[in-house]
Write a structure and sequence with these properties.
This protein has 73 residues and is mainly alpha-helical. The protein contains three helices and two strands. The N and C termini lie far apart (52 Å). This is CopG family transcriptional regulator.
Protein backbone atom coordinates (compact mmCIF):
# COMPACT_ATOMS: atom_id res chain seq x y z
CA UNK A 1 0.00 0.00 0.00
CA UNK A 2 1.29 3.45 -0.81
CA UNK A 3 0.57 6.36 1.47
CA UNK A 4 1.98 9.74 2.39
CA UNK A 5 3.05 10.39 5.95
CA UNK A 6 4.72 13.25 7.80
CA UNK A 7 7.62 11.84 9.81
CA UNK A 8 9.46 13.67 12.55
CA UNK A 9 13.12 14.26 11.73
CA UNK A 10 14.34 11.75 14.32
CA UNK A 11 12.00 9.04 13.02
CA UNK A 12 13.08 9.65 9.43
CA UNK A 13 16.74 9.56 10.51
CA UNK A 14 16.21 6.26 12.33
CA UNK A 15 14.52 4.78 9.25
CA UNK A 16 17.31 5.97 6.95
CA UNK A 17 19.98 4.62 9.31
CA UNK A 18 18.27 1.22 9.54
CA UNK A 19 17.77 1.13 5.76
CA UNK A 20 21.44 1.87 5.15
CA UNK A 21 22.63 -0.59 7.79
CA UNK A 22 20.40 -3.45 6.61
CA UNK A 23 20.62 -2.59 2.88
CA UNK A 24 16.84 -2.22 2.57
CA UNK A 25 14.56 0.55 1.35
CA UNK A 26 13.45 3.32 3.69
CA UNK A 27 9.85 2.13 3.27
CA UNK A 28 10.79 -1.36 4.40
CA UNK A 29 12.77 0.13 7.32
CA UNK A 30 9.69 2.08 8.41
CA UNK A 31 7.71 -1.20 8.34
CA UNK A 32 10.38 -2.89 10.48
CA UNK A 33 10.35 -0.04 13.00
CA UNK A 34 6.54 0.03 13.12
CA UNK A 35 6.39 -3.73 13.73
CA UNK A 36 8.95 -3.42 16.51
CA UNK A 37 6.71 -0.83 18.12
CA UNK A 38 3.69 -3.13 17.87
CA UNK A 39 5.47 -6.05 19.53
CA UNK A 40 4.73 -6.12 23.24
CA UNK A 41 7.89 -5.99 25.26
CA UNK A 42 8.44 -7.89 28.43
CA UNK A 43 10.57 -6.02 30.92
CA UNK A 44 13.42 -8.20 32.06
CA UNK A 45 14.24 -8.23 35.74
CA UNK A 46 17.34 -9.91 37.08
CA UNK A 47 17.14 -12.09 40.19
CA UNK A 48 18.61 -9.13 42.08
CA UNK A 49 15.48 -7.14 41.26
CA UNK A 50 17.26 -4.60 39.05
CA UNK A 51 15.84 -4.07 35.56
CA UNK A 52 18.00 -5.36 32.72
CA UNK A 53 18.06 -5.02 28.96
CA UNK A 54 19.22 -7.05 26.00
CA UNK A 55 22.50 -5.75 24.60
CA UNK A 56 22.97 -4.87 20.96
CA UNK A 57 24.52 -7.80 19.12
CA UNK A 58 28.22 -7.31 18.54
CA UNK A 59 28.50 -4.27 20.80
CA UNK A 60 30.93 -4.80 23.65
CA UNK A 61 31.24 -2.33 26.52
CA UNK A 62 34.84 -2.29 27.67
CA UNK A 63 36.47 -0.67 30.69
CA UNK A 64 38.14 1.77 28.31
CA UNK A 65 34.81 2.77 26.77
CA UNK A 66 33.33 3.34 30.22
CA UNK A 67 36.35 5.41 31.25
CA UNK A 68 36.08 7.57 28.11
CA UNK A 69 32.40 8.31 28.76
CA UNK A 70 32.44 8.63 32.54
CA UNK A 71 31.31 11.98 33.93
CA UNK A 72 33.75 12.67 36.74
CA UNK A 73 32.33 16.10 37.61
Amino acid sequence: MRTTADLDDDVAAAARALAQHDHISVGRAINVLARRGMTPGTPAVAPSGFPTFSPVAGHVITDELVAENRDDD
